Amino acid sequence: MMKVGIIRDSRYLDHKPGNTHPEHPRRLKAIYDALDRSPHQGLVTLAPEPTTLEALEMVHTTSYIDKVLKTADQSFTNLAPDTPASAMTYLAAWLAVGGCIKGLDEIISGKCDACFALVRPPGHHARIDGAGGFCIFNNLGVAAEYAIRHYHMERILIIDWDIHHGNGINDLFHEQEKVLYFSTHDILLYPYTGNFEDVGKNAGEGYTVNVPISREMENDDFLYVYERVMIPVIVRYRPQIIMVAAGFDGHREDPLGKCRFTEEMYSRLTALLLKGREMAGNPPLLLALEGGYQPSALARCVEEVLQCLTGEITGREISHSESAIAREIVQKARDTHKKFGVWVE
Ligand SMILES: [Zn+2]
Asked: Phi, psi at residue 68, to the nearest 5°?
């Protein structure tokens, strides 16, 4: 049985971007409430610490970090037109990165096999010098950089199943091979980047795998893409650690994603991920919460993932009833990447 940790802290709820803003504290509150209602056996709750300036500076510019700090104790300011800050936002943002690093330390030390950082604000859109898409610091980007510099990791796989393209992570590791960024997303949504041809550059060429999907896809279509594209990438790249930008805005009730997936899809996706992980020799697994804007649907999705990780539900895997759209997308991804050697064949 896997030892699974979660990172949680009530201070993540103190980032208040406004009552009508989609990235509202009630998202995380719904997840924490669900966990309190039905605790999972074998799940360890871990408290985060704020990250250090040194860790943040591995990714973000000093002037941008200062800009975030200057929002402290101001009742309301904007870091980007879609990303406001309230008085305690800076602390939540430091804790979001710190939570991911705490999770990383736990899994690398072997205290946990997997850790899910249930944090906010999210991170995958954050750029080195700016906020955007509700993200302030690039939580997983900093964790990956920390894993490289602190733990001397050379093969880090970041899987991004949020329905938006994680342009921040994409750009951060665009020119290097130590991080392979794999993302599925609807390219018609913010930030409108991440086409098939965006494969990385220089030493990083081939180490960015962007797979734009269609909002017409059903559960089995999405799983088919992961089985046919992600699994071969995992097997060939043999990551020393797998990180997941775990957004759940592909859920059918999500007001921003407008896709068709159900919560069950996310446990099946997790089962598939665990299968791939096993084929790569069971590297440690760090998940960090990204999007998901219908609070109760989000909580159900997170529950599904945790139940799969802790072994409470098993056997939910791919059933092979994919559509022509899914087959087309897989073909396009394989054709684009064949020459870079991340494939098994
Ligand atoms: Zn998203």
From this structure: -65, -45
In this structure, how many other beta carbons lie within 10 angstroms of the beta carbon of residue 144?
A: 28
Tell me the residue ranges of DSSP E strands in 208-284.
208-212, 241-246
Q: What CATH number should be reported for the domain whose range is 4-340? A: 3.40.800.20
125 is annotated as an active-site residue = yes
Query: How far does the centroid of ligand 1 lie from the alpha carbon of residue 345, in Å?
Result: 32
Contact 209, 229 (CB under 8 A): yes
Residue range 192-231, pLDDT digits in tens: 999 999 999 999 999 999 999 999 999 999 999 999 999 9
Greatest extent of the chain over all pairs of C-alpha atoms, in Å: 56
Asked whether the beta carbons of 124 and 166 are under 8 A apart, the reply is: yes
What is the phi/psi pair of residue 286, to 5°? -120, 120
Give residues with Cβ within 8 angstroms of 133, minimum separation 6: 82, 83, 122, 124, 125, 126, 164, 167, 190, 191
144 Cα–ligand 1 center, Å: 20
Q: What angle do CA 202, 205, 210 make, to 5 degrees?
A: 140
Domain ranges of the chain: 4-340
Which residue do the tokens 């879609």 mark?
82
For β-strands 83-86 and 76-80, DSSP reports them as antiparallel
The residue from 15, 60, 125, 337 that is catalytic is 125
